[in-house]
Prior knowledge:
mainly alpha
Amino acid sequence: MAIEDEIVRVKAECRQQMIDAEIESYKLRINQSHNEKDELLKVVKDFEKKYKDLQIKYDADGQSWARTKTDMAEKQRKVNHQGFSFIHKKNFFSMKKVLN
């Protein structure tokens, strides 16, 4: 009977070692998953920061473009007004020559 008892004891011990190894494996997987989660959270925060920076840059570029368009329209208006005044002056002097 001693041999049979020893076989049962060794089987039980092997089974326990297999269960302990599986538990350790799951613990390692959990730790690895936590580390991956932490890394992904860092990546997400980095992307959020980059998105915010790009949004600020986009808004600033949009405001700059709006100012540029306003400035260009104002300059065009001035040029058109000056050109119109020049044409009227030219016509006025032409008329003056015709009348004299």
